[in-house]
Write a structure and sequence with these properties.
The complex is a heterodimer of chains A (about 280) and B (about 325).
Chain A lengths: L5 H10 L7 E4 L3 H10 L7 E4 L3 E2 L23 E2 L2 H10 L4 E4 L3 E3 L4 E2 L2 E4 L2 E5 L6 H7 L2 E5 L7 E2 L16 H4 L6 E6 L3 E5 L6 E6 L5 H6 L12 E2 L5 H11 L33
Parallel strand pairs in A: 1-2, 1-5, 5-10, 6-11, 10-12, 14-15
Antiparallel strand pairs in A: 2-3, 3-4, 6-7, 8-9, 12-13, 13-14
Helix pairs in contact in A: 1-2, 2-7, 3-4
Chain B lengths: L5 H10 L11 H4 L8 E4 L9 H9 L5 E4 L6 H7 L3 E6 L12 H8 L4 E4 L2 H13 L3 E4 L6 H5 L3 E4 L6 E6 L5 E9 L5 E2 L7 H7 L2 E9 L2 H5 L5 E3 L6 E4 L17 H14 L1 H13 L4 H8 L1 H14 L3
Parallel strand pairs in B: 1-2, 1-8, 2-3, 3-4, 8-10, 10-12
Antiparallel strand pairs in B: 5-7, 6-7, 8-9, 9-11
The chains are: A alpha/beta (about 280), B alpha/beta (about 325).
Chain lengths: ~280, ~325
Amino acid sequence: MNAVTAEEVMAITASRLLADHKVVFAGVGMPLLASAVARRRQAPNLTIVLEGGIIGTRLLPGHLPISTNEMRAAYGAQMLTDITDVFLFAQRGYFDYGFLGAAQVDQHGNINTSIIGNPLHPNVRLPGSGGANDISSLCNEIFIVTQHEPRRFVERVDFITSPGYLSGYRTRERAGLVFGRIGAVVTDLALMDFEPDSRRMRLRGLQPGVSAEQVQRHTGFELAVPDDVEELPPPSVEELQIYRALRGDPPPSPPDGETPVSPPRPSAAAGSAPTARRPA
Amino acid sequence: MGVTTFREARRELEDTERVVADKRMSAAEAVSLVHGGDHVAIGGTLYSRTPMALLFALLKRRPQRLTLSRPLACYEVELFLVTGAVERIVTSWVGIGLPWGLAPIFRQYVETGAASYEEWSHLAMGLRYKAGAMGVPFLPALSMLGSDLASSVGLRTVACPYTGERLAAFPALNPDAALIHVHRADMFGNAQVDGYRHMDADMARAARRVIVSAERIVSPEEISAQPGATMLPHFVVDAVVEAPHGAYPHECYGLYEADVEHFDAYVRSVRKHGVDAARRYVQVHVDGHRDFAAFLGEVGVERLAARAAAAARLTPR
C-alpha cells in the first residue's frame, strides 16, 4: 500500500466519528468524503445530506462532486428538494451531525470563512458562509475537519462566520443558539474536543507518531491537555482502500505477505433500521 | 435590505393585470424588463441551472448600478463586475468552485471597495426570498445568531410573542426581477423543473418581474401530463424564452453536466491577466455573438454532447 497521506489520516479519523443510522449534513470536500467512507464501512445506514437540496446521496466512486449543487453530489439520492428545505430539516433537529471544513478556527470552535484582517478593509475576502453558519447553528453535533497549521488555529478568528462556542462558557446559548454543540475538531495531527465548562479546545487524541508538543507548536493558542490523551489508531488497510476507491485513485497492490481485504461492503437497503426512532 | 416593502410588492401585484397570453420572446426582449438600479435575483445556485442565456443577454445591454442576489454565486458575477454593471452582491458565498480557490476578480473588487458584498448565510438568503414569496415582512429562525455575519448586515432579532424566545428576524427580499432557467415551460409560463429546485420557486414568487428561460418550450398538454413537476404557475411568469443549453457552461440536472474545462480556461486567463481577461471574455463570448445560440455554436456540438452524455450517466433514466 502506498504511503498514507496527511489528508487520508485526517479524513479517516473524521469518518470514524460517524455512527450508523445517523443523519449527517456534510460540506463538500473532506467532510463529504469522510462521510462517504463511514457509509461504506461502519455506518451503512448513515444518511448523507448536502445543502444543494440533496438527501441520501451515495456518490459514484471516481466521480466526486466539487460542489454540493451538482449531479455528482446527487448520485443515487433518495430525495431532491430545495436548499431552504434542507436547512429547515436541520432546524427541526433531524440532523445528528453537521460536518464542516474551516479556513480559520479558534479556541472556542468558531469558524471564519469570510474575512482575513479588518472586516471593514479586508486583506483577503474569502468566499463566505455558504451553508456553514446554518450548519453550525442548527445541527445537533458539529464536527470540524481541517489541516493543523498555526495560521488556521488562532486564538480568536478575525470574523465569526459560523458560531462555535463564541466566547466560551454559556455565550453560545445566551446568543440565542439554544441547540447544537461542537463535538470534535479533527486534523492531520490530532483529535480535539472542548472542556465542558470553559468550552476551550482540548486535546483528546494524537495521530500516530505525533506528540502533544508538536500539536501545541502548530496551534496559535494554548490547548487544554488532559492526562489521558490517547493515541489514535492509524488508518487500516480497509479504510484506505475505501477512501482511495472513492477518490478513484488507482487500486493499491497489497504489500507482500498480506491478504487483500474484501471490497467495500455494499450499502444496506433503506428501511433496515432495527429500532424505531420515535417513542410509541 | 430590499428596497420594496412587502406592502408595496403586494399592492403592485394587485394593480397589475396578469393575462393568460403567449409570453414567448427573445432573450434580448425579455431582459428589457430589467432596468438600471434594479435588484436582480439570479436563479439556480453556483454552477447549477444558472440562467446563462438570460445573463449573457443582460450583460450585452451593459446595465448600470445593479444589485445581484443568488444563493451561491459563481464566475458570472465577475462578468457583471468588470463591465461596471454591479454595485452590490447579496449572497452567502462567491467562488468558482473548490478546485479553483478564491474568485480573483471578485476579491479585487470587494477588497478595494469597488463593489460591496453583503454576506448572509445560505438559509438566510432562502428565508429572505421565502418571506418575500409569502407576502410577509420577515421570517424568524435560529440561524446567524451570535456571529459577525449578523452584525455585518444589521440582522435584528425578535421575541416570540408566545414564549418570549429570541429569534433572528430575516427581512423579506422582493427582488425587482428574477431570472430563472427551467427544463420545460409552455408559452403561458407554466414552468417545470427536474431534480433539485435550489431557491428558484421562492425567488420567483418574491420577485416583481419574472423572466423564465427553458430548455424546451412545450405544449400546455405536456405540462398537464406531469403537473407535479411544475415549479411555477403561469401567473407568476412575465416572459418565456426558449434557450436550449441555456445554463451552459453551468449544469442542468439530468440534461448536461457543467463544463469545468470552460471554467479552467476562464480562471487561468484571469489569474494571468486579471480584469482585462474577464473583460475579454465578455467581448469574445457575449458581445462577439448575435445571441446565445451563436455562442453555443462556437462551443460546438461535440462538446455539448459530451456534457449531455455525462449527465445521462449520473441521473436516473
